[in-house]
Amino acid sequence: MASRKKPGADLRRDYPLYVQVGMVITLVILVTAFNVSYDSRGDFQVQLEEQDVVEMEEIKQTEQERTPPPPPRPPVPVEVPNDEVVEDQEVDWDSSLDFDEELDSGPPPDEGGEEEEEEQEIFVAVEESPELIGGMDALYEEVEYPDFARRAGIEGRVVVQFVVDEEGNVTDPRALSSPHSSLEEEAIRAVSEMKFEPGKQRDRAVRVQMSLPVMFELN
Question: Are 157 and 213 in contact (CB under 8 A)?
């Protein structure tokens, strides 16, 4: 009686073949799926990031600054011989000096020349102030109202500053304030004509600075 093989025995013998066929089918499916996905997405581009380029810079070694050398010394002056020949001078040794003879020192200084005058001090406040001879009435008798100022109706006060010297005369008059030049000129002229009792300091007449107001009014 012939023996019959079981179907399971043939399957075990062909198992490696089935495994290889399955792997091939699986590989075909994967390749097909990859191609379909690649076509559906269009061009497949792979973008690589640009890498930073590192440049190597050569570092030069620093050189230490050297101190500049000192300037050269100036040349030593060389004495140049003088080509001039000094002629021999004859000296009369027989002559004698008269020590009793007076030396001619020129004319004597002029003792009668002009001496510099010392600037005298001008006082502002003294023990005895200068007094106007005749008072303010004498001043206004001297004042004449300028025609131009009278016609123009100009009036006001002019303050005149001046110095009374040791003899009572008025010197260096000038106007400190004035409403018009015509009134200023007349006030200075009138004050200059006045005479004062000189001021005194320690019983000595001195120069004193003072001022007077001159009023110009139209009646």
Answer: yes
pTM value is 0.46
- Domain carrying residue 146: 122-216
Check which CATH number belongs to the domain holding 203 and give it: 3.30.2420.10
Model confidence over 123-172: pLDDT tens digits? 998 999 999 999 999 999 999 999 999 999 999 999 999 999 999 999 99
Decide: helix, strand or coil at residue 137.
Answer: helix
Q: Report which secondary-structure segment, H or E, holds 104.
A: none
DSSP 14-38: THHHHHHHHHHHHHHHHHHHHHHHH
Q: Please name the residues in contact with 178: beta carbons below 8 A apart, sequence gap of 6 or more.
A: 156, 158, 159, 184, 187
Q: 68-102 b/e with 16+ CB inside 10 Å = b?
A: eeeeeeeeeeeeeeeeeeeeeeeeeeeeeeeeeee
Count of structural domains, the chain: 1
User: Does the residue 147 lie in any domain?
Assistant: yes
Would you say residue 109 lies in a domain? no
User: Do the domain assignments include residue 131?
Assistant: yes
Asked, for residue 134, whether it belongs to a domain, the answer is yes
| C-alpha span between 121 and 106 (Å, rounded) | 39
Q: Which two tokens stand for residue 3?
A: 């023996």
